[in-house]
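Work Package 3 (structural annotation) set out to generate three-dimensional models for the target panel prioritized at the project kickoff. During this period the team completed the workflow that converts sequence records into discrete structure tokens, so that structures can be stored uniformly alongside our sequence database. As a representative example, we reproduce one entry of 251 residues exactly as it appears in the project archive.
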Amino acid sequence: MGDKQHRLRRIFGADGRTVIVAMDHAGYMGPVPGLIDPADTVRKVVAGGADAVMSNIGSARRYVGALDGRGLIISVDLSAPDPLAVVEQALEFGADSLKTLAFYGAEDPVGMRNLGRYAVLCDRWGLPFQAEIIPFSFAATDKHTPENIALAARVAAEQGADYVKTMYTGDPDSFRKVVEGAGVPVVILGGARQDGGRPVAGQVADAVRAGAAGIAFGRNIWSAPDPEGAAREFSAAVHGTRPAARETVRA
């Protein structure tokens, strides 16, 4: 457990909040601008105050030297045939956390079962586990109700997730119930890129006031014309005027 808490301190600031830059999109979007040279993008978002970067291990190999002590989260496929080998690989690479995506309510009992397997294996090895949990599917927008989001977040926590990534419900009152019901830190995802950082940053500030532990944003940061500026603006929305003091030396 001590190793897990040490690794979590590389992801979450002293205020208990985090700005995670999600760069695992290259696994299905390919070499799009912002992800072609991941090391260059990581240097920019780190300069902007990002607390952690998340990607597939392939990209992580290319940018790990640019992290400058920030947290490293490895994104993995829930359907990988050997979860133990996946966790061991992440540990050998020096990851601070492992993340996988699951859809609660979809007809995929194997997926939810594997979510629990990853949680157990990560706990055994002291590796913090992030569950990205979505009700039914990204396309099932009619099912993305506050009640379903709260239910999915709690199920992920019950499966053993140390912290959860999920959708923002749209207003602070309903999202507060998601946070309170989950019982573990909850970070919100960003979804498709939205033009105009300030409205999005305002939504982030609302989520934080409702108890969110921060964000795990991708396209709204790495595909922005100024990734460093986007990271800085979101960091201000999450942490206040400046990022909270945090550890910068990796073990």
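The mean pLDDT is 90.
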